[in-house]
Amino acid sequence: MSIKNLEKYLPENTLPHLKQWFGDHYIHIKITRGRKSKLGDYRKLPDKSHEITINSTLQPQLFFFVLTHELAHLIAFENFGGRISPHGMEWKNTFRMMLLESISVYSEDLKPIILQFSKSPKANFMASPDLVRYFQIEDYEDESSYIEDLKIGDQFIYRKQTYIIEELRKKNYLCSNINNGKKYIFKPLARVEKIS
Q1: Residue 60 near residue 8, CB atoms below 8 Å
Q2: Residue 155: Cβ-neighbour burial (10 angstroms; 0-12, 13-18, 19+)
Q3: Are 33 and 130 found together in one domain?
Q4: What pTM was estimated for this model as a whole?
Q5: I need a labelling partner for 38 at 20 to 30 A (CA). Which of 70, 126, 128, 176 fits?
Q6: What is the side-by-side strand order in the sheet with 172-177?
Q7: How many domains does the chain have?
């Protein structure tokens, strides 16, 4: 897929950045259906070309952010060699530099969040509560809440199962499944439906 074909998924003014980052690399870009397990993925192929997959369901700014994350893998491996840690310092520094280079692409309300994130880029998008809140706020109906917005003792539905919040453990929540009595740990930004 050529860079030009990506335009419909991207915010305005991203092509100059992508052309610079793509350079002479041969990159296969695959646009996938929405995956719950990941937003994007990078692999170096046996023929020395590169493959990046990205979910088609992402908002344009998030699509560009994820593409930048995956391209940072490619550039870090090319610059520092294949033995570096996938999300080690080389990748973090590369990703940070790319985010700062392209900060003008993001909307004014998102820029401060991207700048804060760039100070210490996380491997997993879900590890950045501000980014998760920013991009998911429109994706859910009003009855959906973050578990961190509920109180100890509140009941909620998650994947058609009913739970009760028992306690906060560090940053995570220990919850009991009312149907089977088993206990589960939930991350603070798990999306759940509160039972009133």
Answers
A1: no
A2: middle
A3: yes
A4: 0.71
A5: 176
A6: 144-146, 191-194, 155-158, 161-169, 172-177, 183-186
A7: 2
